[in-house]
Amino acid sequence: MVKPCLQVELAGVKLENPLMNASGILGLTSYSLARLAEAGLGALVTKSVGLKPRPGSPNPTVVEVPGGLVNSMGLPNPGLEAFKSEVEEALSKIGKPLFVSVFGFSPGEYGEAVRKLSRLPVAGFELNVSCPHVGGVGEIGGSPEALREAVKGARASTGKPLFVKLSPNLTSFAEAARVAEEAGADGIVATNTVRSMVIDLEAERPLLAGVYGGLSGAALKPVAIRCVYEAYETVKIPVVGCGGIFTWRDAVEYFMAGASAVQVGTAIAYRGLEVFRDILSGLSAYLEAKGLDDLSRLVGVAHKR
Ligand SMILES: Cc1cc2nc3c(=O)[nH]c(=O)nc-3n(C[C@H](O)[C@H](O)[C@H](O)COP(=O)(O)O)c2cc1C
Questions:
Q1: How far is the CA of 216 from the centre of ligand 1 (A)?
Q2: Which of 16, 231, 256, 260 lies in disulfide reach of 238, CB 3.0 to 4.6 Å?
Q3: What sections of 95-220 are H helices per DSSP?
Q4: pLDDT of residue 81
Q5: Ligand 1 binding site (Cβ under 6 Å of any ligand atom)
Q6: Nearest to residue 252, comparing CAs of 223, 305, 295?
Q7: How far apart are CA 273 and CA 106, in angstroms?
Q8: Residues 6 or more apart from 218 whose CB is under 8 A from it?
Q9: What is the whole-number distance in angstroms between the Cα of residue 223 and the centre of ligand 1?
Q10: What are 199's strand-pairing partners?
Q11: Which class is domain 8-303?
Q12: Closest ligand 1 atom, CA of 224?
């Protein structure tokens, strides 16, 4: 049998394979974006950037827990204007579709951020409306009105694909996905991290300087898979899975739940950039063993009852 086809098309963007990095794990500089591109990804996402520079939260910002990491990085970034030149330099090196992730503190900031970046030859944008530990950002994805306004504003600023990254902390993930689709989103990313906290026994206070954090890694996977499954049943736009993917088996679970592509974050910290080639070769071998010629045949199969 010929090698199974791993190419995917996401809202008109062609990816040579379905693997992406999750926003915020590398992707803040042209150097780290170039390193990611060499690791064999199908498309890349930048760290989330906002209108103004932010130093992020004081240390400690990351703590390891059983099953994952809890981080409260606080969205450190150089601000859009300074970031533009990093993106331009990255685009001259990477030769892969690049999505820029943006965040805002009000719905209007999303449209403004996308408008300011709209001349860059990027593939599209990811709207981070779901950071669980920076006050004001997660609240946008948590309110149907604010979410609608943010997505509509971004939609009015660009004709390029817009992916909306939602939170697993919502009462109804499916409803938020529906609102995003209605407001003009071209895809859903499921999911950001779970709002969480770790207590320092010695200090008798929250361990992270930012108090609240976001849980990523293996412990997030069943939650995020459920979000992908619900979104797949609710919207027609593609769903990109994200949360706790370490191996090809994890990725296959996401495809079966309805993801068209997947993003990998925390696993990069544990397994290095080789994790992407490992997942790709495992995926290819799995499809071949199952006699499937194309990855698309796996997408959503868990919904057949
Ligand atoms: C250190 C760290 C920084 C992150 N920064 C961002 C960010 O800037 N924007 C964003 O949308 N998500 C951010 N995330 C969330 C990840 O993109 C991803 O949604 C989450 O970690 C789940 O995937 P994983 O289990 O593969 O890490 C960050 C996660 C971590 C661990």
A1: 7
A2: 260
A3: 107-117, 138-142, 144-157, 173-182
A4: 94
A5: 22-25, 47-48, 62, 69, 71, 73, 75, 101, 128, 165, 192-193, 216-217, 220, 242-245, 264-267
A6: 295
A7: 35
A8: 67, 68, 244, 246
A9: 15
A10: 206
A11: alpha beta
A12: 22
Of 5, 131, 227, 242, the catalytic one is: 131
Annotation marks residue 131 as catalytic:
yes
Q: Which amino acid is at 110?
A: Y
Q: Whose CA is nearest to atom 14 of ligand 1?
A: 24
The pLDDT value given to residue 1: 65
Buried b (16+ CB within 10 A) or exposed e, 91-101: beebebbbbbb
Q: In the chain, at which residue ranges do the beta strands (DSSP E only) sit?
A: 8-10, 13-15, 19-21, 44-45, 62-65, 68-71, 98-102, 124-128, 162-166, 187-190, 194-196, 199-200, 205-206, 213-216, 239-242, 259-264
Q: Are 275 and 246 contacting, i.e. CB atoms less than 8 angstroms apart? A: yes
Q: Which of 23, 131, 189, 254 to mutate to test the pocket of ligand 1 (most atoms within 8 A of CB)?
A: 23
Residues of the chain with pLDDT under 50: none
- CB proximity list for 145: less than 8 A, separation 6 or greater: none
200 bridge partner residues = 205
Residues near 189 by beta carbon (within 8 Å), at least 6 away in sequence: 126, 163, 164, 165, 166, 239, 240, 242, 263
Q: Taking the domains of the chain in order of start, what are their residue ranges? A: 8-303
CA gap 229, 60 in Å, rounded: 34
239 residue type, one letter: V
